[in-house]
Amino acid sequence: MEFVKQQDTVKAPAAWFTGDVWFDVIYAGQEPSRMRVNMVRFSPGARTHWHSHVLGQTLHVVSGTALIGTRDGTVFEAHPGQTVTCPPDEEHWHGAAPGRFMEHIAMWEGKGDGTDETTWNEPVTDEQYNRPRSS
Fold first, then answer.
1. Which residues of the chain have pLDDT under 50?
2. In sequence order, which residues have a C-beta less than 8 Å from that of residue 10 and are 6 or more positions away?
3. What is the predicted pLDDT for the residue at 4?
4. For the whole model, what pTM was predicted?
5. DSSP-assigned states of every residue in the chain
6. Residue 111: its pLDDT value, please?
């Protein structure tokens, strides 16, 4: 058993996010583990760009209100304690609702073959972000 060395908080790159987003790497598994876990903090209205994960992604909301959007135009609203799974290769986005900070734990895996775990696409438009929400 070993304690994982804590890394510094990192500002998320503007190439992948709209607004101010910060994350802490909780765990970046070393072979044979492929687990990735980050605590991600979004300022009000901040969000990821459209993206997908080769083996899917799980999001656990810690605080605030999370918005998760899919390409069919659905925007889901998730609250603290709720966990949402995104299937492999499904393009989606997630971020904070307007007016409140939001934190979630993001969990995903890579295939272990050196290919990218995440495919990043274009920014989410204000129109896409502001669609009516589903629970």
1. none
2. 22, 23, 24, 25
3. 84
4. 0.93
5. --PPPPPPPEEPPTTTEES-EEEEEEEE--TT--EEEEEEEE-TT-EEPSEEETT-EEEEEEES-EEEEETTS-EEEE-TT-EEEE-TT--EEEEEPTTS-EEEEEEEE--SSSS-SEEE-PPPPHHHHTSPEE-
6. 83
